[in-house]
UniProtKB/TrEMBL annotation:
Residues in coiled coil: none
Protein name: Ubiquitin-like protease family profile domain-containing protein
Region annotation (Disordered) ranges: 115-135, 176-223
Bias (Basic and acidic residues): 176-185, 195-214
Superkingdom of source: Eukaryota
Record-linked PANTHER family: PHD-TYPE DOMAIN-CONTAINING PROTEIN
Record's compositionally biased regions (Polar residues): 125-135
Source species: Dreissena polymorpha
Residue ranges of the TM segments: none
Length: 223
């Protein structure tokens, strides 16, 4: 239970101090309104349970204790069930109690004894604990399965997106290649047409010159 004790200390502070504070407050007939003391109560109630059957995360500690209360695995102390408001005198005493208080051996032993008796009565049946462990394990497995399915679906979606992207890139490359080939063909045809036109014009001019020369020769011979 050392890990649970450390977790409670991490969240609520020094539990031993609030335990001594409770003993002194009870001896004075006052009620201490303190969340850390509630955590100390929960710690001493859980202390008698099998540590291997209790898996607690720091962030889930409060919800875990609340679940234990709802399922009847633990019960609060009587003075926690019948809570009394603090009057001004009790509040003054509570402020005074915050200073370091020496341990009271008799009260410590009585508190341990009372807590031990309550804890033994509140221990769950083995079958109940086994059933809870099985249910917890089943929920954990289902959560892991759901997480695995989600990861699988995510990677499958990513693979499909990559495949579609690849197809689009291939289509784009083919389209660019086709466009370049068409432009090249068009330029070649245009160049060929211009060459043919030039040759045609050259031939036409040559024929015209030949015709002119022949006519000139005929006129000269007639004269």
């Amino acid at each position: 239970m050392s890990s649970l004790h450390k977790q409670l200390q991490y969240i609520y502070g020094d539990i031993s101090k609030y335990r001594r504070r409770y003993i002194v407050a009870q001896s004075q007939g006052t009620t201490v309104d303190c969340g850390a003391f509630a955590a100390a109560n929960a710690y001493f109630l859980l202390k008698g349970m099998d540590p291997e059957c209790i898996v607690i995360n720091q962030r889930q500690l409060r919800s875990h204790l609340q679940l234990c209360l709802q399922n009847g695995l633990i019960t609060v102390f009587p003075h926690m069930q019948k809570w009394k408001p603090i009057d001004k005198d009790a509040e003054k005493n509570a402020v005074k109690i915050q200073t370091p208080i020496p341990n009271d051996t008799n009260n410590e032993m009585q508190f341990e004894k009372a807590t031990s008796k309550r804890t033994k009565k509140q221990l769950p049946h083995k079958n109940t604990q086994s059933h809870l462990d099985s249910a917890t394990l089943q929920r954990t497995l289902e959560t892991m399965k759901d997480s695995s399915e989600l990861q699988k679906q995510y990677f499958q979606d990513q693979a499909e997106k990559a495949a579609r992207k690849k197809e689009l890139l291939i289509d784009l490359c083919e389209s660019l290649q086709k466009h370049a080939a068409d432009e090249k063909k068009t330029k070649r045809q245009k160049k060929k047409g211009e060459k043919t036109k030039m040759e045609s014009e050259t031939t036409k001019h040559g024929l015209e010159r030949c015709e002119t020369k022949r006519n000139t020769t005929q006129k000269n011979s007639q004269s």
